[in-house]
Amino acid sequence: MRRSSPSPLDAARLDAVFAALADPTRRAIVARLARGESSVKELAKPFKISGPAVTKHLKVLQGAGLIARSKRAQQRPCRLVPEPLREANLWVEQYRRLWEDRLDRLGDYLLELQGKKKGDRA
What's domain 7-81's architecture? Predict the structure, then answer.
């Protein structure tokens, strides 16, 4: 069964998610937020970058829809929003299955050329 291509809006969101996750600092922030909500100060601790640089990374993640920020007194805690990651995973999974199917068919064809049966792969 073939799936349709993402709509332009979905493609733009997917582009933003992959662009945001292309940076190792942002991936580390996402990994940290996967464990639970955190303040900006706590998120900045493991990095040897300035506070404004961390804020820029958070804005990119927020723009991609990967995180949400709230306001609690003087703090701005961040939390992970899993839906964009789920959408990216579905997109990747679609192509993983496609290539696995193609490689399985290629393997079967190569066995056929060698005069072997499907069960003789090992």
Answer: Orthogonal Bundle (1.10)
